[in-house]
Amino acid sequence: MKKTFTFLAVLLCTTLSQAQIKHISYGVGWSIPINANMAFDINEDGRTDFHINRHLDELGFSPEFIVGCIASPSDSAYVGFGAREMSIFEYGDEIDGTDLGFLNFIDDDRGSNWHRDQGFAEGWNDGEVKYVGFILLAEGNGEIMASNGWMKIKVDAQNEALVLLALAYEESLNVPIIAGAITTSTEDVLEVESFTLAPNPVSELLSISFDYKGTQTLSAAVYNELGQKMIDLNRLDNKGNTAIQLDVKGLNNGSYYVQLTDGKAMRTE
What we know:
Helices cover 1% and strands 49% of the residues. It is built from one helix and 22 strands.
């Protein structure tokens, strides 16, 4: 049987503000299927912060103990199918682990919003966009400190998937963050137009084409769904219209991402 590989289209814009807020947008959404048990390292420090859709037949987040935590109304708040209840924030709400109280964050269980047999947790509906809060823990000055963040997500019940639309976190420790909002002084956007991948799905040779308007040297890489780099195309000196032929026969069946970066901004397809 011939192997086939799917390359998913996701726009990834990274923004760094004066307040040290890191923001990532996944465009139309990164769809993570039920039971994927996907390891997610949000701040790319080499530690898994959460597993997404780890618990059998549920959509949600399973934090790694003393690494990542998900905000909850209280340490005794549970949904009907036994998972911890995740707090739902409105745009403009403040998320502050020190103010909300660390006991109100899920760190040793899971926070879920949908069950295959029992349906939605309270407050969640199919396709509705919600904000959830999280903290990433780090040790500083002999004590545990928190980096506050938010994720913009929705449930796709028909396809049994959790869809991640965007996230942001405060790189400075113990500094509150506002759900959905980013205050920036500069915004880096990769100057790439007409980005195409063909054929898609592909079995042997992938054609990558784009029109690069920038002046910096580009690098390109292929990542799998776990964020592991599978192919490194290194430095691309091309400016303007560019076409690359990529041999993917050595990859296993699955979905992959092609990422372009100039060292400041990134675009992922």
